[in-house]
Amino acid sequence: MGSHMRYISTRGDATPRNFSEILLAGLAPDGGLYMPESWPVFSADRWRSLRAESYPDLAAEVIAPFAEGAIDLATLRLLCRDAYVHFDHPAIAPLREIEDGLFAMELFHGPTLAFKDMAMQLLGRLFDHVLADQDRPVTIVGATSGDTGSAAIEALAGRKRINVVILHPDGRTSAVQRRQMTTVQAPNICNIAIDGTFDDCQDLVKAMFADAPFREEVGLSAVNSINWARIAAQIPYYVRAALALGAPDRPVSFAVPTGNFGNVLAAWAARKMGLPIAKLCIGSNRNDILTRFLTSNDMSVRQVQPSLSPSMDIQVSSNFERLLFELLDRDAQACSAIMQEFRKTGRMSVPQGVWEHAHAQISGLRLDDVETLSEMRSIYTRSLYQADPHTAIGIAAGRAAREPGVPMVVAATAHPAKFPDAVVEATGIHPALPPHLADLFDRPERFDRRPNTLGVIQDAVRAHVARTH
Ligand SMILES: Cc1ncc(COP(=O)(O)O)c(C=O)c1O
Ligand SMILES: N[C@@H](CCOP(=O)(O)O)C(=O)O
């Protein structure tokens, strides 16, 4: 391991940067995603030494090699300790055995009730830390299918040097998700409902990054998982769960419900760091581009269909590019050519050998809405566990991929109260919001509706930046 971790772009045409620089940059200027130049690998003894750490201290240790040369361990420890103070469970990400050998890793004990808080609470503090040395503010423009936006707003509301504009697809989030975003009145927050899908929102964000003068003008930055810092901050919970179940002396498997492919990529990164992860599997809803790819090498974009798991109503999964880069042995030219062709044609041609490699490393299962409801119902009947629709898809994927003697951990990505309609339909029981959100439906909302037009959204971002000065 070198003394400075640097980051390179998956498209190969960006100057290598350190952790603080890529935190602020978000997306690489060549349109690629930043990746660590090398993987830090922990020995079995190093993993074992982390077993006794609290979650925040473990997180600092796991993230430290990715921040080497930019943010030291002592600072990371302080930031992590502060980030997880307001979680409502002492274990931060507790494990619940819901079937024999099958565990839910509950990632929804943060303020906005979804796994996004696990990284976003830390990111807010990392931004503050890094911006303390800068003389100009940043403008974060984020795309959300519901959870990233609320977590980002919660983490960044009221922060002095940060303007935030969150784009969500109009009418395609749950009412709880929308209200978690639109009822926050802090002046640095702006919500825009786009006439389109999450993919349209994400495309707008990427188009803004591709517009160099605009990027410079507003000091554009990102908190979507295109930002490597998000992935780095999502690795520790896989480590924590695996160590609790016997790693590194025993392998552990993970199942992850997937949309933008960031969460499972964090698990995959933990495997690259030497954590003995046996199986990695993903679950998708009817927007199944990733499961189609993993089962039959069909990576072709179809129309996004609304589903009961709206956070995963995504067709173009940003983080797949990072996996592709790795599967291509970091051949950035090949990665760039494949991604450009995908952008142009909506179809990705992945060489058969590369696909076989992917297929061997990650498996996938798709559930439609009827299957999702039936899975939620049967989990509740068998285990009295109220899973939200995303988690239920993960549980089904985990059960399908399970091997005897190897614990299977499913990422429970959201609290059931974020998706009450589906939960009531499946179980007949209304999941209550926790006390801090009990009056969510009485709070006034504030957001603008805009067409899916780049120039219109750029003007809205400019106007927000001007207002906050
Ligand atoms: C509740 C929930 N589950 C699963 C996912 C999928 O995670 P990822 O996009 O990291 O694949 C998301 C968002 O993307 C989500 O909000
Ligand atoms: N499901 C996400 C989609 C954005 O994913 P991210 O990995 O870029 O944060 C959401 O809830 O917004």
UniProtKB/TrEMBL annotation:
Reaction catalyzed = O-phospho-L-homoserine + H2O = L-threonine + phosphate
Looking up InterPro entries in the UniProt record yields: Ser/Thr_deHydtase_PyrdxlP-BS, Thr_synth_N, Thr_synth_N_sf, Thr_synthase-like, Threonine_Synthase, TrpB-like_PALP, TrpB-like_PALP_sf
Query: Where are the annotated coiled coils located?
Result: none
Spell out which residues are annotated as carrying N6-(pyridoxal phosphate)lysine.
116
Q: Which GO terms of type biological process are on file?
A: threonine biosynthetic process
One GO molecular-function entry = pyridoxal phosphate binding
- Known cofactor(s): pyridoxal 5'-phosphate
Listed CDD domains: Thr-synth_2
Specify one Pfam family.
PALP
| Top EC group | lyase
Q: Where is the Threonine synthase N-terminal domain?
A: 6-84
Q: Does the keyword Translocase apply?
A: no
Q: In which pathway does it act?
A: Amino-acid biosynthesis; L-threonine biosynthesis; L-threonine from L-aspartate: step 5/5
Instruction: List residues of the Tryptophan synthase beta chain-like PALP domain.
Output: 102-335
Q: Which UniProt keywords apply?
A: Amino-acid biosynthesis, Lyase, Pyridoxal phosphate, Threonine biosynthesis
Enzyme Commission no: 4.2.3.1
- PANTHER family named among the record's database cross-references: THREONINE SYNTHASE FAMILY MEMBER (PTHR42690), THREONINE SYNTHASE-LIKE 2 (PTHR42690:SF1)
Q: Which family does it belong to?
A: Belongs to the threonine synthase family.
Q: What's the protein here called?
A: Threonine synthase
